């Protein structure tokens, strides 16, 4: 692998005798990981069901390594949202934040959603998760992953950190800043990161990170926790960024991160002031564990914050919309969705509980996308199928993974001859929803979204 020469020199200088084992990892293959989605499947069932050979990632209870020859991204279980493909070291970041059910959580730099989906699962789809991404293209991938994994407690926005900081001052219990960075830790995975690398880029990223962190700080409530992470090795973007943050905000303290199974401490000697307590932060190195390079710091705001005094969103559903939606739920669902229902024109969403006012923000998804009001009827959205469990739908078509043909036909968008006439029907693989179909006079019309078809 051709690494940039100034990068080589710098790492040699920083790592000294460790440089040899470090550079040796560039002769090895990258590691591949996937994380099971506990919102949909339990670990033991998952292990019985998966056709891939998996071995556990020691620092993430839901993470597994898979072999490079396997292609889990192409399996229908992926379409059913049973797992998320994620670089193993990246799985440690959400573990360090570990939000609880019911908390208010912000993922400020969230696309494509590896950590958001992990955080939502830890929150058991409760509380409020703001998943934000500044880039309009990337926010689409984030929103799709949130849909696929059946996440219902997230507001997805396409905003700048400044705009959010104005709106959510003192609001969040926990914030993740998985910052844009120079990506040195991903060189084995992403050749573009090598091409893009320069010392100037490292400096540019460091300055961007400081700005993003100052916005995040404003949004923390008193006692709130902030986790900062990067996938790069450079001290300027890691220890020195945290050093600068601590110097700027006196009421922020570093919290220790548990270091097991090869996770190393951050380097006090790489700060400008030889800050001893920088050893509380964590570094994931490819020469110490099976995974790419990452840095993680955990901080707490101990001082007072301005109290958030915004409003929460109330339902804006008209009587006739309510009637059409309820007619659908009565016929198709055996459960009632009790969350506040909000209409963006004809599109209905079940909002996360106590959803704060989002007026004036670029909202891409607001909780669970239920579906669309058509003329005197309601058409369910794909997101609703992926967020429901088998037990709560009136009609289902249970396909079995041992017979791939009808499953592939469904995923290609073709109709299926079922012989029934049951109307809205949930299509499942081994009991896990893949999407909707509408069964009329023996034929199941396909409602698998066009953009997702294979
Ligand atoms: C490391 S990636 C996030 C990965 C994501 N957390 C995950 O686990 O899938 C950093 C993200 O920050 C976004 N970003 C870039 N510049 C930004 C800025 N000025 N403010 C906020 N986010 C920014 C990038 O578009 C990118 O999606």
UniProtKB/TrEMBL annotation:
Q: Which organism is it from?
A: Anoxybacteroides rupiense
Q: Which SUPFAM superfamilies match?
A: S-adenosyl-L-methionine-dependent methyltransferases (SSF53335)
Supply the Pfam families for this chain.
Methyltr_RsmB-F, Methyltr_RsmF_N, Methyltranf_PUA, RsmF_methylt_CI
Sample GO molecular function, one term: methyltransferase activity
- In terms of domain of life, where is this protein from? Bacteria
UniProt-listed GO biological process terms: methylation
Q: Which residues bind S-adenosyl-L-methionine?
A: 109-115, 133, 178
Q: Which residues form the SAM-dependent MTase RsmB/NOP-type domain?
A: 1-302
The text of the family note is: Belongs to the class I-like SAM-binding methyltransferase superfamily. RsmB/NOP family.
Q: Please identify the protein, giving its name as recorded.
A: RsmF rRNA methyltransferase first C-terminal domain-containing protein
Q: Which UniProt keywords apply?
A: Cytoplasm, Methyltransferase, RNA-binding, S-adenosyl-L-methionine, Transferase
Active-site residues annotated for this sequence: 231 (nucleophile)
